[in-house]
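Listing S7. Sequence submitted for prediction.
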Amino acid sequence: MHHRTILITLLMSITLVLSGCTGDVDDEDDRDTTTGDGDTITPEAEQEGRVVAYVKDAPEDDFHELWVVFTGVHVHRSGDDGNETDGTGTGTTNGNTTDGTTGNDTGSTTGNDTGNTTTTGGWETIWEGENAIDLLRLAENDTRALLGGTELETGRYQQIRLDISEAWGVRTSDFQNVTIEVTTGQAKVVQSFEVSGNGTTELIIDLDLERSLAEQRGGGGGQSARGSDQETRWRLNPVIGSVEVVTR
């Protein structure tokens, strides 16, 4: 009888030990997985955040309407070295500073067998398409127009680029249609912002028309067909005045 009591006590002790081990394993499943070097692998759902781009503008006196065709919005991601520039170098074309390379660079990552990841900087696209917007209508209503949005990797970004293909307007003086020459199809600005995995980052881009538009009168002593002494040409060299970053 004494031996049976001891055996039953031992079996109950073993059962309690095994139950405790199982509970520990279940708890570990709810934690972040770590590599052999102690680096934490965060869940995939936290690796991306949403970024949305808008455009707006202030009033401009020379035009009743001013239409601009936007074709893309891009942002430049910082690399792990904290580099604040795009690393492409610059060149000069017709007196305007432009990227020294054509096309869009994309960010990339390199890894090793231990699971460590190094992020390199590069251009990421928020939106590409074609959207004609009357900027003066936005100014009158003190509103903004949506260009587009996408999911981007979490992290720090430090540049914004706006692509423009063409522009035209209606003059205030005589309500005549005017073709506006786009001398530079891109506008870039240094603007640092953070993308997190638990919300939406809004970029509200203010295109400064006062600095972007230039009126140029042609030479020649004769009168034009409309009776004016000189023909007037308008040019658009887009300049981003400011960017408002809103995190939701």
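Caption to Listing S7: primary sequence and predicted structure tokens for the chain studied. Residues 16-37, 87-117, 220-230 have pLDDT under 50 and may be disordered. The longest helix spans residues 2-29.
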